[in-house]
Amino acid sequence: MKMRFVLSGVTVGLALFGMSNLQAEEVLLRGAEQQQVAAKDFEADALALPSNVRYHALSDPFKVEIVGQGLLVRSTLAKQAREKGLDKGDLAQIRLRQVQETALMDLLLEDLFKAQGPSEADLLKYAENEYKHNAERFKLPADERKASHILIVGTDEEAKKAIDDLYQQLQKGADFGELAFRFSKDPGSAPNYGSLGYFPRGTMVPEFEAELDKLKKNGEYSKPFQSSFGWHIVRLDDSRDAGMLPFEQVRDDLIAEGRAKAFKDLRDTLVQKIIAEAKPEKDAIEAFAKKNKELADKQRAK
């Protein structure tokens, strides 16, 4: 997994306008220029992560420190920018306002969805209807397997030592998903505790398929092996035959789909209402576009 998290709009706003000023908040990281990163700063940053991994991302001290360093760097550089007066210009003020508006927009949408979004009963009904009326979606044309893996990138001795160490931890009873979340370098599966989901035979590289073929029981994992991506340990999680997927296997995904669709509908409704009430100043737009076309032509001529 990449040792870096995407900073949310909320966090950007905090960094640009100054870190949290809550004196009672526990400080987790201190900088040389009296900058501090508190627990609330991490919680705001974590809003950019999927809700199913948000809290877990803050449960690993190593990742907390890495994220804290990123927050501290941004806060420190923002402080230096303010000291230089770089936040005073007209365009700078507009950019800062736009960052804040983006964060506030996201917070408003989340708040409205909590109040107006579908209930759990509504979402279950959506899932049942979708399963009943769109049965073709849930037919498997071929057998599939579900697997998780841990990936260490590289072919050198250091990479081999790292994968061997993880294998030894598994042998001693360590949780596979926890190790994948903390140490796997696959950015797609690591946030999901190493899970690759279901996939048909022949989807993965030959080395991966060959090792997975050796695993016969759910929960069984391989010894370390090498592919073009690096070193792996793979675990067989489940398998299913071609045919109709049972509702129980797709219910949670359909509920998540219904929730995402409802959120999009809410957002789109608000957006369309605002756009419908907008009154474009055609002449001003034409003049603005013309000015920028002239600037583009001059730049092209250089």
**Unreliable sequence segments:** 1-23
Total DSSP helices = 11
Strand order of the largest sheet: 5-4-7-6
Structural class: alpha+beta
- Distance linking N and C termini: 44 Å
> Share of helix among residues?
55-70%
Portion in strands = 5-15%
Q: Give the CATH level 1 class of the largest domain.
A: Alpha Beta
Overall number of structural domains: 3
Total number of strands:
8
What does the average pLDDT come to? 89
Give the overall form: extended
CATH topology title of the largest domain: Chitinase A, domain 3
Q: What's the Cα radius of gyration? A: 25 Å
What does this structure look like?
There is one protein chain. This protein is 56% helix and 13% strand. The two termini are 44 Å apart. The strands form 3 sheets. The chain has a 4-stranded antiparallel sheet with strand order 5-4-7-6, sandwiched between helices. A two-stranded antiparallel ribbon has the order 1-2. Strands 3-8 form a two-stranded antiparallel ribbon. The chain has 3 domains: 9-107, no CATH class; 120-132 and 246-301, no CATH class; 142-241, Chitinase A, domain 3, CATH 3.10.50. The chain has 302 residues and is α+β, with helices and mostly antiparallel strands. The protein is extended. It contains 11 helices and 8 strands. The chain has helices at residues 9-17, 39-46, 51-57, 61-83, 90-116, 120-133, 157-171, 176-183, 206-213, 247-277, 282-301, and strands at 27-30, 36-38, 139-140, 144-152, 195-200, 225-227, 230-240, 243-244.
